[in-house]
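Continuing from the previous page of notes. For each protein in this section, the sequence appears first, followed by its structure tokens. Read the first protein now.
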Amino acid sequence: MENWQKDPAADKPRTTEVTSPINDLQADSQVAERPADERPNVAPPTKRSFMTVRQLVITGLLGGITALLGLTGYGFIHLIYMKATILHIPTIIGGIVEGPRVGMMTGLIFGCFSLFQNIVAPTLMSIVFLNPLISVLPRVLLGLIAYLVYRAMPGAQAVKIAVSALVTSMMNTIMVMGLTYILYAKEFAEMRHVPLDQVVNIIIGICIANGIPEAIGAAVIVTPIVLVLLKTRKPTRRQA
């Protein structure tokens, strides 16, 4: 009979190695102490920027067009008591073609330029437009409104663009004049030499007399431009 030798290690209970958080921290510290060329290649977490390079370039381009229209005077239509504007057109185009971020940033440039114009070339209504809540905030929201209306509208491309431009332009007039009534009704009545209770009727009249022609003009100008831009634009994912 063969003699079998029993392995002493067989009687020892098997144990499972358990790592503790302290050991993990020590291992991480040892890796950190290594020279840079000996450390394992670990990709750092990527951070998504607020705007892509493409969006920044297009925002700068549309903002430059807005400033050019304002500096040359072609972006403002001088009326008796205020300046009607077509400076919102680049903002609408940016919101429809490139999304709300480009539209809102272009609207910010538009609003800041409107504020600047009322500082250097004041009119009877400049006391109102010196308030950023009236001259800047509604213009920033225009890019978002243009984007949302365009995305929500069914139907043909041209119809969606025209309705978006029409609604956004009307909202520009309504927001500006509505905030004027809320914040400066008394001052507006004094400037126009009318009773305070007549201010709301005058505001509505301005919205109709100025807002409707501006909206129609925006739809006529924006629709063919956006159609061309969408056809020539590369089929990349829209950045919100």
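Done with the first. The second protein uses the same format. Note its length before scrolling.
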Amino acid sequence: MEILKEIMNKSKNTVINEEYVMIGGKEVDKKSKIEIGDQSGKFYTLEQLAFFILNKDIMYTQYLKKCKEQNISPIFYTDQKLITEELKKVKEDVTVCRYDSPDEIYFSRHDYSWVSKLFSEKNKNVSFKTSLEPYRIVVPSSLISFINLSNIEEILISGNVIKKSKLVLDKLKTNFNGKKFLIEDTIDDWTSEDWKSLVGIFVDGSSFQINEWKIGDIAGLFSKIPVFYLYEEGNESTEALDGYKINRIKVDKGTVKKEDLDKIWRLIMGVCESNGNGL
């Protein structure tokens, strides 16, 4: 990420041409692959990253338009946040603190090395795994949607789809199958860590919901996260979902069939158990 920090610090002197990214007069191959994050396994070309940094302060829709005009593949939305958070560290001031060394008389003469040995022996066979809980599920924000914050909990517990007009503010915290979940209808303030904990998406078939997210690569997102579309026979609206990887769940007489509810949970828990979605 050092070269990206250099671009940020020398943005006024950074130019992208046909072969190179010129950084303060230094030529670097624009097709060079750079990994973002700490061993994330995600790579972008220097051209993509430099173009994003030079345009990071404009609206996302404007950025996508400029990418199209310049024939440059855009940075995936969740990765943009990861890069931005990393680059913020460039501006942080680091204060070096110096301490006087204690006089020798204050050092203990006792040998406490057995303490570290005790813990190392006790824990040497213990593996630690970072939990992403609470896991996140996204639902439509519209009150007229077939599924939203007002009825999602009942659907996931019993499969009963009860249309409610009750407004549920903010977020819904709940527990399922021994795991903590946070169900939300907006992603505006999500960080890269929040995206990593996303395990399920419910859509209502409207283009409004998808456009509201302002994400360029919807297909890429839907390929990694299980997406569910609940519908009643005769009321299926899928134009906005055409071409995407979607699990279509039919609701019969206000109920999701047991096998379909089991499928929903199997896919969601599959992401939970893998401890991340790869975003």
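What the second structure shows: The two ends are 18 Å apart (CA to CA). The chain has two domains: 1-91, 135-277. We return to this in next week's lecture.
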